[in-house]
């Protein structure tokens, strides 16, 4: 039965981490911030708990989840690392990089978390709240973004409540997430980026993989991050009835970054989409954002929002 009200506990409140770990231990879901977006975490080794994530999100069950672990040792219990994977882990973990790797022999991850694939998406997050929860739980946590399936990813506890209030038991609130955009997902064996994110193609020296390529990342469903109203891209001015999200010289009702800073823009992107969605305007327009560096990930999310 879905819980009636969703409790919110501030990170740092005595007992907050213990309370969250207790919910996870009995197979429940907890919304918890990472450095990218809020995740909806449950015990990755417990298929009933993982089913609870899919149920709360209304997510199609073929879409596999990212498994979060506190460090490389814990990651090696879950996935098989070759030298390329080890080098990436050494360089970028903890941080917003997800590696798609073969499942380790004897991996305890529930098949439902990987949607039955023989690979697993794994990452070591840097955020203090997720790190504390992982350590308190002592098991890998499956965590997709904490929003109803297809909706805008949450970068604040209020965003989580807006789509999942009453559907999850607990939110661990630690304010706005710093990066604001989901982790970069890579296939280390093929040197491909499956989902652009905070760590850029330039930083990795990897090419962008085929959309829905051989390893499908079904989270690459075209209509993702979709607000409830039409979204027009590359807008240089506001048309009647629109809420304009600005960037650089294009000043909007809300502006991603007046100075044209892509890091600032990424951190504000989902917050801006949530505000636009909640506004009275009938439609949303977004100013052009360059495709360089982090701009690739920003444009990827914008195109899915506009689909
Ligand atoms: O920043 C993030 O990555 C956030 C935070 C909470 O960690 N999580 C997140 O999870 O964005 P989610 O479930 O919304 O996105 C997971 C993505 C999906 O596109 C999914 O298809 C892909 O990872 N994925 C998961 N397992 C995969 C696998 N074995 N092979 C290829 N893609 C996989
Ligand atoms: Mg998501």
From TrEMBL:
Family matches, as InterPro entries: DHBP_synth_RibB-like_a/b_dom, Sua5-like_dom, Sua5/YwlC_C, Sua5_C, T(6)A37_SUA5, TC-AMP_synthase_SUA5
PROSITE patterns the record matches: YRDC (PS51163)
Molecular-function GO term, any one: double-stranded RNA binding
A Pfam family per the record: Sua5_yciO_yrdC
EC number(s) recorded for this UniProt protein: 2.7.7.87
Residues that, per the record, bind L-threonine: 36, 68, 123, 143, 183
Chemical reaction(s) catalysed: L-threonine + hydrogencarbonate + ATP = L-threonylcarbamoyladenylate + diphosphate + H2O
Gene Ontology CC terms: cytoplasm
Compartment(s) where it occurs, according to its Swiss-Prot or TrEMBL record: Cytoplasm
Keyword annotations from UniProtKB, A to Z: ATP-binding, Cytoplasm, Nucleotide-binding, Nucleotidyltransferase, Transferase, tRNA processing
Binding-site positions, ATP: 59, 63, 119, 145, 153, 195, 225
Top-level class of the enzyme under EC nomenclature: transferase
GO BP annotations, alphabetical order: regulation of translational fidelity; tRNA processing
Chief site of localization: cytoplasm
Domain YrdC-like residues, every copy: 14-199
Family: Belongs to the SUA5 family.
Function: Required for the formation of a threonylcarbamoyl group on adenosine at position 37 (t(6)A37) in tRNAs that read codons beginning with adenine.
NCBIfam families: L-threonylcarbamoyladenylate synthase (TIGR00057)
Protein name, UniProt field: Threonylcarbamoyl-AMP synthase
Originating organism: Sphingomonas yantingensis
């Amino acid at each position: 039965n879905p819980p009636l009200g969703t409790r919110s506990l501030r990170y740092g409140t005595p007992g907050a981490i213990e309370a969250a770990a207790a919910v996870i231990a009995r197979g429940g879901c907890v919304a918890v911030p990472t450095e990218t977006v809020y995740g909806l975490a449950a015990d990755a080794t417990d298929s009933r708990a993982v089913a609870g994530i899919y149920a709360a999100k209304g997510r199609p069950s073929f879409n596999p989840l990212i498994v979060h672990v506190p460090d490389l040792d814990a990651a090696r219990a879950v996935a098989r690392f070759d030298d390329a994977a080890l080098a990436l882990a050494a360089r970028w973990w903890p941080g917003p990089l997800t590696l798609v790797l073969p499942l380790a022999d004897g991996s305890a991850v529930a098949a439902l978390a990987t949607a039955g694939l023989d690979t697993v998406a794994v990452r070591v997050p840097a955020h203090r709240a997720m790190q504390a929860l992982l350590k308190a739980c002592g098991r890998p946590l499956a965590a997709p973004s904490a929003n109803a399936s297809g909706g805008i990813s949450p970068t604040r506890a209020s965003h989580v409540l807006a789509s999942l209030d009453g559907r999850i038991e607990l939110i661990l609130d630690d304010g706005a997430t710093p990066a604001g955009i989901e982790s970069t997902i890579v296939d280390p064996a093929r040197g491909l980026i499956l989902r652009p994110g905070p760590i850029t193609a330039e930083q990795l020296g990897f090419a962008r993989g085929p959309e829905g390529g051989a390893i499908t990342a079904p989270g690459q469903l075209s209509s993702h991050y979709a607000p409830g109203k039409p979204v027009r891209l590359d807008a240089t001015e506001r048309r009647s009835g629109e809420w304009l999200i600005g960037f650089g010289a294009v000043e909007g009702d809300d502006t991603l970054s007046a100075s044209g800073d892509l890091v600032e823009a990424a951190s504000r992107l989902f917050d801006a989409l949530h505000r636009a969605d909640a506004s009275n305007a009938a439609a949303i327009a977004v100013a052009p954002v360059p495709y360089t560096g982090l701009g690739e990930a920003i444009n990827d999310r914008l195109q899915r929002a506009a689909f």
